[in-house]
Amino acid sequence: xxxLSELNNAExxxxxxxxxxxxxKLRELRQEDLAEQAGVGVSTLARLESGKNCSILNLxxxxxxxxxxxxxxxxxxxxxxxxxxxxxxKAKEKLRVRQKRGDSGMDNASITPSSKMKYTSHSNAETxxxxxxxxxxxxxxTWGDET
Length: 147
Description:
Elements: H1 9-26, H2 31-38, H3 42-49, H4 56-66, H5 83-92, H6 113-116, E1 118-119, E2 141-142
Antiparallel strand pairs: 1-2
InterPro entries: Cro/C1-type_HTH, Lambda_DNA-bd_dom_sf
Organism: Pseudomaricurvus hydrocarbonicus
Region (Disordered): 95-147
């Protein structure tokens, strides 16, 4: 069996559609009958079965009509959390996550010479000797923030 993490979104949608179609056929239902029981349009059910876009609410309605809500058990909270723990969790949740000022959002591992460094020559172009203004500079690489 293929791991879901190895599939792209379109492949997962197609897999869900195949499962819904198989469950419908096992119950010997036509698309029209299941769509009516689920309270969705026939075209919505046909789109879902073919792996096309479908809203989560329509998916839930269809799974409910098929008696397959337990298929969503993995997303439900199967461990009991006390009300006190819930208050602590809610208090720690951030409503928004903002980028800090001056933070590019890049970690240091992704810095490359082409993205953050610039090459500055510290030699006299005519003599190819070190520039007298920067005698201690032996490397031509700088970060660009030196003055």
